[in-house]
Amino acid sequence: MTQFPLDRFAGLETPFYYYDLDLLKQTLNKVVEQKNKYGYHVHFAVKANANPGLLAEIREAGLGIDCVSGNEVQCAIDNGFDPQKIVFAGVGKADWEIKLALEAGIRCFNIESLPEVEVINEIAGAMNKKATVAMRINPNVDAHTHQYITTGLEENKFGIGLTEVESVVSAIMKLNNIELKGLHFHIGSQITDMGAFQALCTRINELQKWFEANKVKIEIVNVGGGLGIDYEHPDQNSIPTFEEYFNVFHKFLELRDGQEVHFELGRAIVAQCGTLITKVLYVKEGKKKKFAIVDAGMNDLIRPALYHAYHKIENLTSKAATEQYDVVGPVCESSDCFGQAVVMPQTKRGDLIAIRSAGAYGEVMSSRYNLRPIAPTIFS
Ligand code: LLP
After folding, report:
1. Does ligand 1 come within 6 angstroms of the Cβ of 265?
2. How far apart are CA 26 and CA 57, in angstroms?
3. Minimal CB count within 10 Å: which of 83, 187, 260, 343?
4. Does residue 226's CB lie within 6 angstroms of at least one atom of ligand 1?
């Protein structure tokens, strides 16, 4: 549970991201303890948070990195990750990004289409290298999550459709500078229904039979990420149910001898350790509503505006009787709203407000919209 150091906060300019590194360490300990039970490999999806302070802890815990851009690959290297623990996914890898990853000697490209793997083959050939690839297959599993973050369904820009697997594999086999070693899947994000992961295992088992029958040796089974967190109760459930999660794969995934299982967890590792701390600038009394206008905006945390995502909002200063507020930012867009009808102690100018569970896809998705500055980060 995060305890906020209010004395320290008192002297600081707002808004800022506050990271509870103790909670991150506890979360990482749990991940490591549970994954080690089965010898699984976890690559942290750095798209969720690329803050060097967090990456240092993640590296110390021995996790690898899952990247989706050349700059993320570079970031992983700059932060001391072993290139052999870096995987690189993404539907639109540019030539320079492919070169950078080959130069660095990453473990695996997760390839998403035939044209892409043909380009990787060409670039690898020119560099006199071989690229190890895992083929991202679209398993057509419904993750029962938000429409914008569902990725595993058939009609999707991601991955290779089930009906194309055969033709893509035979085309890859003809490429001299490509070694197909793995299968890659990712069905979506913020998934709390373990049945979706069980369904993924079933689909992988079916596919593995096809690969075995066709004598294509698979060494890596990468099941992606997507484990969700409890946005409603960040204190009661500050560490996700890693035990239950890894156990689903242990129970339902049928592996062949020597196969490695890779995971790409982002949100589940870092979401709960991050909080956006902001200050109330004005309380505006509308006709029916009260607005708490805060000094953080959608440029600092875009999830509520972009996905209507829920983040728990707390008043850290006031202990007065509760009232209801729409908590809004200063950006010139009606969608710059962190929460509607938020019940919190009576609020006044200067109160500190915590927007919880903001450690994943918060800081990293911030922008300079309205030319607002990028919020700094503070560690526990
Ligand atoms: N692997 C792949 C191929 C992915 O596309 C993603 C996330 C992950 C792993 C990590 O997923 P996680 O364990 O974090 O769920 N910005 C959105 C989330 C977008 C997720 C994109 N892909 C949000 O704020 O909810």
Report:
1. yes
2. 11
3. 343
4. yes
Task: Give CA–CA dist 138/158, Å, rounded.
Answer: 7
Indicate if the pLDDT at residue 150 is higher than 70: no
Ligand 1: does its nearest atom lie under 6 Å from the Cβ of 303? yes
Distance (Å) from CA 318 to ligand 1 centroid? 35
Asked if residue 230 has its Cβ within 6 Å of ligand 1, the reply is no
* CA 42 to centroid of ligand 1, rounded, Å: 14
Instruction: Kindly state if the Cβ of 225 falls inside 6 Å of ligand 1.
Output: yes
Q: Is the CB of 274 under 6 A from ligand 1?
A: no
Beta bridge partners of residue 220, listed in sequence order: 182, 260
Q: Which residues 6+ apart lie within 8 Å of 266 measured at CB?
A: 44, 45, 46, 47, 48, 49, 66, 189, 225, 360, 361
8 A C-beta contact, residue 327 and residue 313: yes
Residue found by looking up tokens 């993404």 in the block: 90
pLDDT tens, residue by residue, 164-208: 999 999 999 999 999 999 999 999 999 999 999 999 999 999 999
Alpha helices in the chain (DSSP H): 6-10, 21-36, 52-60, 70-78, 95-104, 114-126, 165-173, 194-213, 242-252, 267-270, 303-307
pLDDT at 145: 59
Please name the residues in contact with 202: beta carbons below 8 A apart, sequence gap of 6 or more. 252
C-beta of residue 364 within 8 angstroms of C-beta of residue 3: no
- pTM for the whole thing? 0.96
> Measuring from atom 16 of ligand 1, which residue has the nearest CA?
361
Residue with structure tokens 């851009």? Answer: 69
Q: What is the mean pLDDT of the segment spanning 39-54? A: 98
DSSP class of residue 176 equals T
Would you place residue 2 in the very low, low, confident or very high pLDDT band (cuts 50, 70, 90)?
confident
Instruction: Give the pLDDT mean for 284-293.
Output: 94
- Closest Cα partner for 17 from 369, 367, 364? 364
